[in-house]
Amino acid sequence: MKPAPFDYERPSSIGEACRLLDEAGGGATVIAGGQTLVPLLNLRMSQPFILVDINGIDALKGISRVEGGTRVGPATSQAEALSDETLGRHLPALVTALGHVGHYQTRNRGTIGGSVALGEPAAEMPAAAVALGATIEIASVRGNRSVKADEFYLGPFMTVLEPDELVTGIVYPDWPPDHVVLFREVAQRPGDFALVGMVGALAIADGKISRAGLAWFGMGPTPIKARQAEVALIGAAPGEADAQAIAELAVADTAPFGDHRASAEYRRTVGRRIFVRALREALEAKETA
Amino acid sequence: MNVQRSVGATRYVGQRTARKEDGRLLVGRGQFTDDVRLPGMLHVTYVRSAVARGRIVSIDTEAAREMPGVHAIYTQADLAALPVQMLSFFFAPIEAPVTLLADGRVACVGEPVAMVIAESRAQAEDAASLVEVTIEEEAPLVTIADARTGPLVHPGRDDNVAAEMGDEDALDAIQPLIDGAAHVVTQTVHHQRIAQSPMECRACVASPDGTGEMTVWMGCQSPHLAARYLSLALGLPAESIRVIAKDVGGGFGLKNIPWREEVAVVVAARLFGRPLKWIEDRFEALTASSHAREQEATLTAGFDAEGRLTAGWCDYACNNGAWPMGEDANIAVHMFMWPAYKLPAYGFITRGWYTNTMGLGAYRGPWAMETLLRETLLDKAARRLGISPVEIRRRNLVYLSDQPHTSTLGVEVNDITPGECLEKLVANVDIAGFRKEQKEARRQGRYLGLGFAAYIEPTGAAGTMAPMTGETAQLRIEPTGKVTAMLSTHSQGHGTATTMAQVIAEQLGVLYEDVSVFEGDSAIGAFGPGAAGSRQGVIAGGATWRASQLLAEKVKVVAAHLSNAGPDAVTISGGMVHVEGAPEMSRSLKEIAEIAYGEPGRLPEGMASGLEAQFRYQPPPVTMTSAAHCCMVEVDAETGFVKILRWISSEDCGTVINPGVVEGQIAGGLAQAIGQVLLEEMPYDARGNPLAATFKDYLMPAISDVPDFEYIHANTPAQTIGGMRGVGEGGAIIGPPTLVNAIADALSPFCEIEELTLPLTPARILDVIEQRDVSGTRDRANRDEAARARDEMAEAPPLASEVSAQGPQASIDGDWNMTLKAPMGGQSFLAHFEADGAELSGYLSAPDGRQDFSGGTFENGRMQFMVKVDNPMKVTLKYDLQAGADTITGKCKMGMFGTAKVTAVRV
User: Fold this and answer.
1) A5 → chain B, closest CA residue
2) B15 to each of B655, B656, B794, how far by Cα in Å?
3) pLDDT value for B777
4) Confidence check: pLDDT of B6 > 60
5) Are residues A67 and A169 in the same domain?
6) ipTM more than 0.85?
7) Boundaries of each FAD-binding PCMH-type domain copy (chain A) (predicted)?
8) A35, A92, B170, B617: which has the highest count of C-beta atoms within 10 A?
9) Same domain, A236 and A263
């Protein structure tokens, strides 16, 4: 289990990284924490000519406040993000989801951007980006662009990212200070990718749900935004929302697959239940608050 | 540890002594096979088949040969220069003609096709990826259902039955007993395929030297067994092969014998003339190491109105894969299903099937299905009859007061204690309190369950199967006064250096710290099969125990002689030799040893110099271990998740040398049991691809899935030296039904688990709770059924026996060399026949005895006769043969041991 031969570059700037990706003409792969990539290299399922290590680029690390949101550098480790005060204050949903990404040990190397950019459909980070309305900042020698998270994912491990492009930031918009976090996942062992899971946030203003961001993971080829459920929630009073009916709407947006661990029917059945549980808890929390 | 050193006070047996192995293992200084680096050593990697079944059209190695660092690329045509006969664990030739690399055809995905030898493993893998193997793919047989109806996995065989035993005719007698029972309970179990997954994958370094000798470092379970296997397989003198395995990270049965890849490394090293290393990676380990389990069985049992067993029948099948490490129908499942229970009548049919999947190997408790089938059936019966799981066992278990007891299949037990273990367990668990809690929890929508199981296990087998021998212990008190032990034990984590040193320190009267144990090398000690069949504590423990006593006796005689005292007045303690009533005569062992080695003139007349003792222990043929376990779970009815709340083991492994080591063995087995019941599975797709290629997809139990176990040691010393019973496999055998029974109890407000399909994934648990096909299992079964129906329409291949022409009747009088191909290996003997018209008589003669027979028949060349055998078990052999001019072929029906092929040629 040894990787196929590859060249290794460790650029110190975004510009240099983009140039390397451009020159490789599609033959380069970016490595950040390597928690998924290194096993793929060893299995020779990934055989890049050049490995571009972005750990030497300071501009890709760290968490900062920006206009209307929080910006996370993609090479920020999951462990660092978990203990970051800014993130804890402004994005509790992201921090909750982070606690379920891999294991204590893997989070020391695994990065936020790595998980977001990989697009594992059963992973927490892509779904959290979709649910919270994040924008993904992308750079290449051709220029910079931004893509909404819910338009970023195309299929399992497939995104809109071109081979010469690099994720340079993930910007999560602010949610009102008293918003509620929803998170549930079902995984056979702690730290495993979920059989089914959901993550999101609800904001309430003047006794009505004013904003809802909800997404599934493990329920289809990509993270799936529960659009119908979001629409149904907005404008409803927390005490009046019918969790069961909204969960049905949420499941209606999914397209789960079956494998030897769980059937599609299991994912739908249990997905509906965890959605109801999470939503009821959130609504009750708001009602009694 | 606070060791008391006063006379007679030092106790080591029974103590949680710190392990001798831990120092080097915990600081990363173990010596595993991959740590071996030899000058001039090259690295091996295998090109494996990506196709499950087909004909190899070509193997193009040209591009690969040009790669940097590549020294050679071998195919089977190259390795065939050194003939090899692969053998099973019983040293019987593998029936399906398995070669080291694929020979013209492939029969499973992962089968090694070519071998690349290069400067580094990475270079070898680079080259391997350029070897082009073209295979004409054929539709594979993946499941047992496929094997029953599909074409032949191995062309040239009669059918896809790898092994068969049992007597279908016996059902005629059993069925009426079952039909007449007050209650009939059936349990069907579909046991998934398991990937063995030792922490250290397989590994081999082979170093030839100029004189035709070979040193081999190998991940194995016994260097002695591995050396003997290699010498037999390669046809070399055993002493020309030395196998070393200092540290090995887990064996579980996978490493019982060297298999294709390890033997190929040894052969290639001889052919190429340089040291070669092969380290299996995890992808290979999961997909191409011998798998385990994959069984389908239905057990039916009758009970009288009080819940007493009346009769039982079992139909068992297992998927042997293409190249099992010995074809196997798992007779042990049936032999050991009932000796601990009072069951008046039992019969079975049991078959192993060839398919185009990776072959099976032994795995901790290879016959464990018997306990799973029986114990889950008993709980089903208890629920049906409305009695408690403890009560149904009390009514049927064989307690000490019922012994000796002989099972319907002839297994006699005289010191098993499953009932006593159960009583001790029950006395330590508040069942009434749990039931109250369970009732209250159900009202809140929480589902708790309590499961029990009891079992017995044959351990320490010796003297009945080829490699299962006694063990030798060689001990010396060195001139330094310290003790050296040369043993044939082997630890893949078992801690044998620790437990054996404890026995020596106690029996000899020396400090544990002063005992050095050498093992893990076929050049050390004498033949022993190492860790196989829960035996080292029993047999090596007994050998070491007695050898220590013999050595102590010599010391006492020497000391008595030096002190003009009687040997009975001498005691040894803490490394000091004391003479009763003469404290001034106390000497250290060092002083005695210096005299024994350096001044032999001071020894008693005629006594050999030095201080050595050797003992080879031949224990009873088998030593039984018993246990009862219980566990408590909570099932989440919304998600189908199982949480293990508590698990209590009550085992009887006789004398406990080290409770920490015993509990470690039980815990390890239980972790595997939890994996089998809840998590692990190696599925295959319809094209014969193994689907769990990494630990992301093959779910091993993690620390979060395994609770802290509680232990009760209910020790009844065995009738062996030292009184130890084997404890290596028990957890993996009793664990699965204990957990399944707890889950079934939790689910009892909903429904019975009608058919048990493992693993019990959350989806399968929802199947039971919601009584619908949440998991898609039934959906899949229907598809299999459809495939089977389709296959049945295809024409079945003709059986060889049907097409063989019948020759004219020739005289058969005289002597014949006859071979009986029995499941545990071939047997050859002399057969003498005398035909008087249609009457046939004669005898069969082997070195261990002669059996006469008469009353046979001889008509149209067909010879039919019966021979009664008493040893090793009572069985009537029914021969049905067809005679030709110079050859006889046919079959011999051996009662429940199935049917053997018979061939004979004129002497």
Assistant:
1) B126
2) 11, 9, 65
3) 80
4) no
5) yes
6) yes
7) 1-177
8) B617
9) yes
